[in-house]
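Hi L.,

As promised, YnfA family protein:
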Amino acid sequence: MPLLLSSILLYSLTACAEIAGCFAFWTWLKLHGNPLWLIPGSLSLGLFAVLLTFSPSDHAGRAYALYGGIYIIMSLLWGWVMEHTTPDIWDIIGASLCLSGAAIILFAPHSHT
């Protein structure tokens, strides 16, 4: 699988795990949900941490930066699908800029120092 496609898939799955885990805590604390939300939330956040280690980057900081671009897109999609908050033009422009930055970080010919 090409690097771009596998990276997008990995980071999308990673973002889903993080967003779902954080949403479980959000539901418990902000929406006064059942504390049992903490169980799937904690498991999901653990999965997020493990998935992020499969990043194609050799450096944690770059992996987090790469992930950030995809995370922003996935967060907007989560809001659209799960919370019925349609992204507006400014959301789309901002997310596009972030995704462009993430692509530069991923594909730039970094020095090996």
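Residues 3-29 form the longest helix (27 residues).

Thanks again for sending the construct details.

K.
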